[in-house]
Design a protein that fits this description.
single chain, alpha/beta, Rossmann fold, Dihydrodipicolinate Reductase, domain 2, nine-stranded mixed sheet, seven-stranded mixed sheet, 11 helices, 16 strands
Length: 347
């Protein structure tokens, strides 16, 4: 059995927690055995009624039978772990991942991989030196809808791609429930909407089409440097590819993600959490079974760890390339939307 500890118990960690419950119920040979967070109140606020919650002296209390700690080293010292799942804020991804890799654990770390491309390279180096798996939670790659898109593009069943458009919006992203700004509102910590929200679709474009030959982007700030962004990615075959993200919108506007890939013989549209394929002959394909991407990514990583197989779907080198591309888009936006040639792959 693969035994897992989680570092960080904020909002995204709740999705990871639900994913572990789902996989354990499905009979997967994994178990989330421990949590740690530097803010013990999160255990009390999120624990179920009647749960023992957190014991402040560092001895492990529990939430739903999962041991709780206030520091990742306390967790590691007291638990037999195989993998650590890192759900801390962006600016701590590299620090925590490298530390856990050096302690000998496999690591799943939330997106974006790190605040800077340079830190991404340090994470990759730590994984190689310690012969451990490192995977980044670019969960969109693991949604069945987008894996269907990828397969359709790769096998050419609908002809060549003509155009693609991706959009993500979210209201009140940089404000806490009480109205105070969160760390997301500090560009130096989060990278703004460009690195935190836009990165999902930038990674998706690379997953579907490979690296562009050139890019340009425009953006405007509200709480951070770039809260609303629109990017164009240019490819040698001339297909028209663009992506936009906006988290400057008012609170109360729900998160929405849409995607459209137009091919010669069909148009694939993802909207409302569902993929529909409209074919030239008028027929429609809409029976692609959905599944949560975080559940799927954890299932994939724990499976390849157990089997000792290489990570072909989402290697850390690819996640680093996505951060590098986002940094280039930010430079373009800083320069008023200048076209920049994307350099050759580093890996």
């Amino acid at each position: 059995m693969l035994r897992i500890g989680m570092v960080g118990f904020g909002n995204i960690a709740q999705a990871h927690l639900a994913a572990y419950h789902t996989l354990e119920k499905e009979g997967k040979d994994i178990k989330l055995v421990a949590l740690c967070d530097i803010d013990p109140s999160k255990y009390l606020s999120r624990s179920q009624a009647g749960s023992p919650g957190y014991i402040p002296d560092g001895e492990s209390g529990s939430i739903e039978g999962i041991h709780c700690y206030d520091h990742m080293d306390k967790m590691a010292d007291n638990e037999e772990l195989d993998m650590v799942d890192i759900c801390v804020p962006t600016y701590r991804h590299a620090e925590c991942a490298i530390h856990m890799l050096e302690r000998g654990y496999h690591v799943l770390s939330e997106k974006p991989m790190a605040r800077t491309y340079g830190d991404c390279l340090k994470m990759i180096d730590a994984a190689k030196k310690n012969n451990r798996y490192l995977m980044i939670g670019q969960c969109v790659r693991f949604y069945p809808e987008f894996r269907y898109m990828k397969q359709a593009i790769d096998d050419g069943r609908f002809g060549k791609v003509l155009s693609a458009r991706f959009e993500r919006i979210f209201g009140g992203a940089t404000k806490a429930k009480g109205g105070n700004k969160t760390w997301f509102a500090d560009y130096n910590l989060s990278g703004g909407g460009m690195l935190d929200l836009h990165i999902h679709d930038i990674d998706l474009t690379r997953y579907l089409f490979g690296n562009p030959t050139a890019v340009c982007s425009t953006g405007i700030g509200f709480n951070t440097k770039f809260d609303c962004v629109d990017s164009k990615l240019m490819y040698a075959d001339g297909k028209v590819v663009s992506a936009a993200a906006d988290w400057s919108l008012c609170k109360g506007i729900s998160f929405t993600a849409t995607a459209r890939v137009a091919c010669e013989e069909a148009t694939m549209i993802y909207s409302g959490g569902k993929l529909t394929v409209y074919q030239r002959d008028g027929s429609i394909i809409d029976d692609i079974a959905p599944r949560d991407g975080i559940t799927s990514e954890i299932d994939y990583l724990t499976d390849i760890i157990a089997k000792g197989e290489p990570n072909r779907l989402n290697p850390p080198e690819s996640a680093a390339e996505t951060v590098r591309l986002v940094e280039m888009l930010a430079r373009s936006a800083e320069d008023g939307g200048a076209r920049l040639d994307f350099p050759e792959k580093m890996f």
